[in-house]
Write a structure and sequence with these properties.
about 280 residues, mainly beta, Jelly Rolls, ten-stranded antiparallel sheet, 18 strands, about 55% strand, globular
Length: about 280
Amino acid sequence: MTILTGSLTSLQLSGSSLVQRKDTGAEVLMDMDFTQLPNQTLTSGQYNSIGGISAFVLTNGSPFFEIVNGQGISYSDAGTGFAYIYWYPYTTFTGSTLNINDRIRVVAEYSASMASAAPATDPDYFALGVNADNNQLISYCRGADSGNSNKFVYVAAFTVNSFAAGTSIITTTGATTSVTGAIRLELDGTQENWYFAADRSFSPGGLTTFPAPGDITPQSRVRMVTNSSQPDLITNYYAPFTSSVETAIFAGFDSNQAALLSGSLQRLTIFRYGET
């Protein structure tokens, strides 16, 4: 994998149909079908063992957020709460070696999803993201969006510099005003270059038929760009998303409107591409 050299101090979003092309040698860090797990209450503000893997749970408000056998990690809230689960790849997957320049690909699949709020400029959403030290990438499906013909939309966003700066773009406006049924969200990237993908399809079961890079509809790209005030070649290297034990992969639900948002996270798969 090529490492870029330069002063990489900002991020830029752009539309792109490209995907990462190094598709061989993937290591499955986690592939969990949450629908197969037994019923389990999740406790916010602490680590929970989910399918034998430690994950941090964080909720706000009073959502229903539990593992329901046959459904997955289920969420329901008619208020303005949220619920997220965080997996820390540098500390959780101790049997694997993660390197600073590894490519990570994450796919989250939601089902029975419903956002029933009236159209708004800040709708409810289903999310997948990567957190690091004061930086965040996030892909989400939200709706109905009053700024986009009251349709559901896919959004790619990032924040940097202690969450003080950031931006987002709407990559696709959906065909309907409702968010119901299946949602697939994907992040695929290295520390300086990430691709977002999303669609409303179900994946086939099993890794042998799991969607390859590019199968889920590409949406956008976020990339780091060289600060124009710096020379092209310097000794610093800024790796905001893959160089810290604070790096976390997260998935969840966010209720911004006081109307019912519900659904289940059915499956999460984390691939690593790189040298051991």
